[in-house]
Specification:
By secondary structure, this protein is of the alpha/beta class. It has a domain at 77-111 and 215-399: Rossmann fold. It is built from 14 helices and 20 strands. It has helices spanning 83-88, 114-124, 140-151, 189-200, 214-220, 222-231, 246-261, 281-287, 298-307, 326-333, 342-356, 362-376, 395-401, 419-429; strands at residues 3-4, 10-14, 20-21, 39-43, 68-69, 77-80, 92-97, 100-101, 106-107, 132-136, 156-161, 169-170, 178-183, 205-207, 237-241, 270-276, 335-340, 385-390, 405-406, 411-413. A 6-stranded mixed beta sheet has the order 6-7-18-15-16-17, with helices on both faces. Strands 14-10-11-13-20 form a 5-stranded parallel beta sheet, with helices on both faces. Strands 3-2-4 form a 3-stranded antiparallel beta sheet. A hairpin with a 4-residue loop joins strand 8 (100-101) and strand 9 (106-107). It is globular and about 60 Å long. The protein binds pyridoxal-5'-phosphate. The site of pyridoxal-5'-phosphate (PLP) has 18 residues, from helix 3, helix 7 and helix 12. Pyridoxal-5'-phosphate is lined by residues 112, 114, 140-141, 241-247, 312-313, 361, 363-364, 391-392.
Length: 430
């Protein structure tokens, strides 16, 4: 349902100063402010009126900073668990699923909640936009943006670590307006981000912005809107595995809007976020309630990342300390950062498949493993209203049912590439 929205339905607010301002375009920061902090969308409509499911994710457009509704999206799906809930003895476990599960009515073709970001971010682009969007990713985000930009003719440069290229599978080929560059094997997500920062210095390119982009956060926040509108109230607990923590920040922000709406209760859900051992920098910081992340040697960090099963949880510079970031979200809402091992994730994924009937992404398995652990340790009451954010799933099912095409890199750069070389090669690419 191509549909041109006539005007913006939001303003922006600096969380560092509180100042409200108009979005002049692709604003990622508050103009004229030095103190680093996130900006947030303030929507005209204080009450959420979801549209019908045919609008996909844009059913929540009251609280999305979009100019346009793109084709092919799905909103995250929430249902009340019976199988896993009974197994764990939980009375009110709600699963919010993003991925491929046509039997339940959701067919995200890139199989993760990163599609919610991509449809929201690309919907924010204005008709006059003429730069190439730059996105760095360890996998799922790249896949989501590639699909959405290819289907909607939006020029895109993806920066991905070479070791993660096997994440770039698709059921239909990706068009030529999407280009892929990789940082050489041995590098990780951090190196791909570095490459994207170099690209973003060139006039032709504009950074997508990651956590700083209000569209990215509010796209991810639709997981909570899906849960709250299904349940009829804000949950008590929110379980999600984090790499950057952006999803959890978004969940907190959605919660704050639901409080203002007034019809979903008065609670702030506890943010129960999780990391994959041994790569647990935010866990280490939050354990001692520190706003600063521990300094980890680059090589040690790469070694940790090479050992985790949920590779998408490997962000080494997450928006944790920044004003409005994960530290502030946890401090305001309450909650814990938990950890799970590869073995626990494997076990949790098996349980999910057995009791709910679909495969889940290793990151979602980390979240499920920490829910299991939290129940065991009696950190949550049996009748608590729990939202388990299954951020990715149905990937194996999708791959069984479809013929796959892989996107190949146009260029592979060294881990610490020379800027002039990047400039020359990327300028030729578009
Ligand atoms: C399936 C899945 N779950 C969780 C995450 C972590 O998300 P966040 O960026 O909110 O930390 C990612 C990130 O790529 C992901 O792909």
């Amino acid at each position: 349902m191509a549909h041109q929205l006539s005007k913006t339905n939001y303003q922006l607010q600096s969380l560092a100063s509180g100042k409200i301002f108009t979005d002049e375009g692709w604003m990622l920061d508050a103009p004229g402010e030095d103190k680093p902090g996130l900006i947030r969308a303030v929507y005209e409509k204080k009450q959420l009126n979801p549209k019908d499911d045919s609008f996909g994710i844009y059913k929540f457009s009251d609280w999305l900073p979009v100019m346009d509704f793109l084709e092919g999206s799905y909103a995250p799906l929430t249902y009340k668990s019976e199988g896993l809930a009974n197994h764990l003895g939980l009375k009110n476990l709600y699963i919010t699923f993003s991925g491929y599960w046509p039997e339940k009515g959701i067919s995200m073709r890139t199989c993760s909640f990163k599609e919610t970001e991509a449809y929201s971010v690309c919907g924010r682009l204005r008709p006059e936009h003429d730069q190439v969007l730059v996105v760095a990713s360890a996998g799922n985000t790249a896949r989501a943006f590639a699909r959405v930009c290819s289907d909607n003719n939006i020029p895109l440069l993806l920066c991905v670590p070479e070791d993660n290229l096997n994440a770039l599978w698709f059921d239909e080929p990706i068009k030529n307006n999407v280009k892929l560059v990789a940082s050489r094997a041995g590098g990780d997500y951090f190196d791909a981000i570095h490459l994207s920062n170099l690209a973003a210095k060139l006039d032709k390119f504009v950074p997508e912005g990651g956590a700083k982009n209000v569209a990215r956060r509010d796209g991810m926040g639709t997981t909570v809107l899906s849960a709250a509108t299904h349940i009829g109230s804000i949950p008590d607990y929110y379980f999600q595995a984090v790499g950057s923590g952006t999803g959890a920040i978004a969940a907190w922000e959605a919660n704050l809007r639901l409080l203002e709406d007034g019809r979903f209760g008065t609670r702030k859900m506890k943010l129960m976020v999780s990391q994959n051992e041994p790569f647990v920098p935010m866990y280490d910081a939050w354990k001692v309630r520190s706003r600063e992340l521990p300094v980890i040697d680059d090589n040690l960090a790469r070694d940790y990342v090479s050992r985790i099963v949920a590779k998408v949880l490997s962000n080494r510079k997450p928006p944790y300390a920044i004003t409005g970031g994960l530290f502030d979200a946890l401090s305001d809402a309450g909650g814990e950062i938990m950890t799970a091992t590869n073995e626990q994730a494997h076990h949790a994924a098996k349980l999910f498949e057995e009791f709910e009937g679909n495969d889940i992404h290793p990151a979602a398995a980390i979240a499920t493993a920490t829910l299991i652990d939290a129940v065991k340790k009696k950190m949550v009451a049996k009748d608590a209203v729990i939202m388990l954010n299954i951020t990715g799933g149905g990937e194996e099912k999708f791959k069984r049912e479809k013929a796959l095409h892989y996107l190949k890199p146009d260029i592979i750069f060294d881990i610490d590439p020379d800027f002039e070389e990047v400039k020359e090669k990327l300028t030729r690419l578009f």
